Amino acid sequence: MPTWLTRGARRGAEIVRRATDAVREDLDAAVERDPATSSRLEMALASPGLHALWAHRASHALWTSGRRLPARLLSQAARAATGVEIHPGATIGRRFFVDHGMGVVIGATAEIGDDVMLYHGVTLGGRSLDPTVKRHPTLGDGVTVGAGAKILGDIVVGHGAQVGANAVVTKDVPSMAVATGIPATVRRPDPGRDPQEALYDEPALWI
Fold this sequence. Notes:
about 35% helix, alpha/beta, six-stranded mixed β-sheet
């Protein structure tokens, strides 16, 4: 076999391996966060959040390679199929999960870190019509956003922060803080407790 063909086959095999590993990682992260299922197969077949994420990965690749119309068409097809609208320009990290999915909107300049979880009805939206500036939020690693929350503008939600259900956030949220209410107020868990445990005890996160 010619050397160039061997190199091409190796590159192709490596791409397939990386894609397979990424899908498995997504599935395991989803199963870990969804107590309603313990099956990779069920999650792969029946999770609109995962379907939206996988479609976004493909549309984002098209977008960054300059094929913007196909990217938008794919993202709109995914929106119709899943109820989740993710602009192909948005940047999303590893092990991202959208539970339930319906009504989630993620804008073009949004940036999302690793291990982020959104519930249904979340909007990562903009407060500017200027196409030359960053208009959407940045979410750090390990952020959880409750159902119906709106995070608007070029703001930062720090690592490990929690945004309560139906909150409206228009200012930065520090790492490991809790933001709840309209407009959102920010507070930190009691210093004597484990921060992650205390965050999950906040009733307003689940309202």
